Automatic annotation (TrEMBL):
Entry-linked PROSITE patterns: MULTICOPPER_OXIDASE2, PROKAR_LIPOPROTEIN, TAT
E.C. designation(s): 1.-.-.-
Membrane-traversing stretches: none
A GO CC annotation given for this chain: outer membrane-bounded periplasmic space
Domain of life, source organism: Bacteria
Extent of the signal sequence: 1-26
Domain Plastocyanin-like: 41-150, 158-278, 354-457
PANTHER family, alphabetized: MULTI-COPPER OXIDASE, MULTICOPPER OXIDASE LPR1
Any GO MF annotation of the entry: copper ion binding
Gene: mco
Gene3D superfamilies: Cupredoxins - blue copper proteins
Identification of the protein by name: Multicopper oxidase mco
Organism: Roseovarius aestuarii
Broad enzyme group: oxidoreductase
Keyword annotations of the record: Metal-binding, Oxidoreductase, Signal
């Protein structure tokens, strides 16, 4: 593997040491103030970037709790537009889900909203706005929520790496143009500048043999990261917060927008060498985290055991109702004429004029009636067929699902699944959590231009 140092707009500077991400324990309630701020996202020879941030930080304040604790957070809206907080991947009461117009009213500028719910599952989650999502997330509103297991695995470092992708101007300002039709109808808003924990690259120092838990979170709105490792032995331990039954050694990790991957990692490089995490991109492979390996070796541990499982429902595939989902639209393939938007059939040109480029089962945007009405307690199967020319990160709120693999084998629990062009990927989930839940593509440029529907569990 040939690895380059990352260059940005002509200049590159070493990022400061920032390996650990300690987080704030919020027993007595935390405040998340969403407001404009200025942060040094680009290397030091650039001006600070005007962002929108939670508590002035990108990523926003890291929240850390133990499983079973109550999360209590007050959103204070210091933006000039309405917002909410969605707790991505959490099984929570519907009224706490943060979807404006569906589970709560939008929080206006100057307004507040209290979120309060019990953390049922351990794992790596994140939070972000669910209003004007493309602009609000792209300008920096996103933070990590870690829920610790009762008995966490024994590691030397528990580190969160938030991967993000920014579209910057030459002056390191965030490019506007959130109504860009090309982004909407193609691969979404891909950026030109990548950060890890808000920095161009991470640097740090590790002892040989040390074990890390790396919590990877992709908060980008369109970029799928492909990571490779050098000088590290890597096992995949959890996807989207949910522990894998088998911990598998991997050489590469693919992480789509909104997904999380928990890795257990041993430093295999010797003292004096480097250990690297690199992003494989079209034209080159770039270092994202560079660790100098130094000091006395930590005694090598056994191959890691699976993380303790969360208490997930049983899925009964036999006789489960099946609701096929056909994903259509976008550049190259296009929508069929007669797709429905806001209750009326429209031709493709009228849909494009309304900024709608995609449809689920012939419906663009959030319809009045849900895509699926599920009875509490039943298992549902949804084969998702992607007839478009682009990949989509399909996300269901309120519960995790499992992929139904060939032979009816159930894959890992996930909350976001990347479905590539031409694929049919079937998911199954238990309608265990009553309420109205969004089901959408987590590339917000697609979400806002048609790929946003919902299910009702009652
Ligand atoms: Cu992470 Cu509907 O969102
Ligand atoms: Cu999409």
């Amino acid at each position: 593997m040939r690895i380059k140092r990352r260059y940005f707009l002509g200049g590159a500077a070493a990022a400061p040491l920032a390996i650990s991400c300690a987080g704030v324990r919020a027993d007595d309630g935390v405040t998340l103030a969403a407001a404009p701020a200025e942060l040094q996202l680009a290397p030091a020879d650039y001006a600070p970037t005007p962002v929108w941030a939670y508590n002035g930080q990108v990523p926003g304040t890291a929240l850390r709790y133990r499983r079973g604790e109550m999360l209590s957070a007050r959103l204070v809206n210091g933006l000039a537009q309405g917002t909410t907080v969605h707790w991505h991947g959490l099984r929570l009461p519907n009224a706490m889900d943060g979807v404006p117009g569906m589970t709560q009213g939008i929080v206006p500028p100057g307004g507040e909203f209290d979120y309060w719910f019990k953390l049922r599952d351990a794992g790596t989650y994140w939070y972000h706005p669910h209003a004007n999502s493309l602009e609000q997330i792209s300008r920096g509103l996103a933070g990590v929520l870690v829920v610790e297991e009762d008995t966490p695995p024994e590691v030397d470092h528990d580190t969160t790496l938030v991967l993000d992708d920014w579209r910057m101007t030459e002056n390191a300002a965030i490019h506007s143009g959130f109504d860009n039709r090309h982004d909407m109808s193609h691969a979404g808003r891909l950026g030109n500048y990548i950060t890890v924990n808000g920095l161009p690259e991470l640097t740090g120092e590790l002892r040989p043999g040390a074990r890390l838990r790396l919590r990877l979170v992709n908060t980008a709105t369109a970029r799928v990261f492909r990571l490779r490792f050098d000088g590290l032995r890597v096992w995949q331990a959890a996807l989207d917060g949910m522990p894998l039954a088998d911990v598998a050694e991997v050489s590469e990790v693919v992480i789509a927008p909104a997904q999380r991957v928990d890795l257990l990692v041993d430093v295999a490089a010797a003292a004096g060498e480097e250990a690297l995490i690199a992003s494989v991109e079209r034209d080159a492979t770039f270092a994202m985290a560079i660790y100098r390996v130094n000091g006395a070796a930590v005694a090598t541990r056994e191959v890691p055991a699976p993380l303790p499982p969360n208490n997930m429902p049983d899925l009964t595939l036999k006789d489960a109702p099946t609701v096929p989902l056909v994903i259509e639209g976008g550049a190259m393939r296009g929508l069929p004429d007669g797709a429905i938007w806001q209750g009326s059939k429209m031709d493709v040109r009228a849909l494009a004029e309304a900024g709608q480029f995609w449809a689920f089962n012939g419906i663009a945007g959030v319809p009045d009636a849900p895509l699926i009405e599920a009875d509490l307690g039943e298992t549902l199967r949804v084969p998702m067929t992607n007839r478009t020319a682009f990949s989509h990160a399909m996300h269901l709120h309120g519960t995790h699902f499992r992929e139904v693999l060939p032979g009816g084998v159930l894959g890992p629990w996930r909350d976001t699944l990347l479905v590539d062009p031409g694929e049919t990927r079937e998911i199954a989930f238990a309608a265990e959590n009553p309420g109205d839940w969004m089901f959408h593509c987590h590339m917000p440029a697609h979400q806002m231009s048609g790929m946003m529907n919902w299910i009702r569990v009652s």
